[in-house]
Amino acid sequence: MADPSAPVLFVTVGSNPAYLFGMESVARARRIAANAGLEVADSVAAGRSAVLADMAYAWDPAWLREIAGRPQTVLTLGGRPVLAHVGDRATADLVTAAMSGGGPLPAGLATVAAETGELSNDALRKRERPFVLPLDADHPGIVERAAYDGAYKGVTDALTLYLWRKPAFYLTRWAAQAGLSPNAVTAVGAALCVAAFFLFYNGWYWTGVAAGFGFMVLDTVDGKLARCTGQSSYWGNIFDHGVDLVHPPFWWWAWSEGLQAYGRPFERVYELLVVGAIVAGYVAQRVIEGIFVRRYGMHIHVWRQVDSRFRLITARRNPNMVILVVALLFQRPDVGIELVALWTIVSLIFHAVRLAQANARRDRGRPVVSWLA
Prior knowledge:
Blueprint: E1 9-13, E2 19-20, E3 23-24, H1 25-35, E4 39-40, E5 50-54, E6 57-59, H2 61-68, E7 73-77, E8 80-86, H3 89-99, E9 110-113, E10 119-121, E11 126-128, E12 132-134, H4 140-150, H5 158-163, H6 165-177, H7 182-201, H8 205-229, H9 234-262, H10 268-296, H11 305-311, H12 317-329, H13 333-363
Parallel strand pairs: 1-4, 1-5, 7-9
Antiparallel strand pairs: 2-3, 5-8, 6-12, 7-8, 10-11
């Protein structure tokens, strides 16, 4: 009988010369397992449960977490075992033989077919069928693309989801091959973020937009790099999301201050009203999101499909930058920041109404659950 208090072991079966994101496949699998809280081992120890992983295949980390939480369960692809959570060495030997093509699976194990299995990923706000693929050393790009797509949030803004999804993939792969850490990418992005602030403040809008968009792309790359290489960490997450959370109001204030140098200044009182509306609206929306998460255990953006669709364009940094760039094309950065203020108010009203509707539904005794559940 396995000790339930001991960490689940992670043991690879076989080898594979494939390299994924600049890492040897076995080393990458072990890093992902360690990042998921499993204890990496060379073999199954007596009295310990273990997840066995056939290195002829690659899989989304979501499957590893799922199987690690389901003892006596095997994930299969085409009937072949890919991941298996076993409770003793005798069972492990039989599963290892099955993975090596030398025998059937032992009786008493539940099976989950990767072709039909679906999982809810609350962290990435999506319900998905995580990938499981044969790992061919001659064609690792297929798995790299699947791993990158699997690391993407299902509900986010339109620019992140569509515009730079492909270029960010190549940057992520290059950063991995170059041995860059996610925190290093975040640090470069943070430097561009600060540069954008000063450029906006001095009215150098196009240069600031270039720096800002560089930061926005790297803001996608660092998270994908962490997930694809198994380097996610608590403090890295704090660093990344802390920068994301704090900088937008400073950008919009700097943009309004830069209007003086650009030649289209606001009256001081009017500028305070415009910037105040943006900052207050931004903070209020974040508060609403926090209340919703605390009260209902999920992001407001995944309650109903309309919420997920509105997240594509809601008044966050990326959609606001689109508004500002369009206005800048017409040489009216002043109108751009006014439109950002207006859109922030509209978005605040939308989210306030959605929170009120969720509260009313709860008060009537009806469940508030995500459409992705």
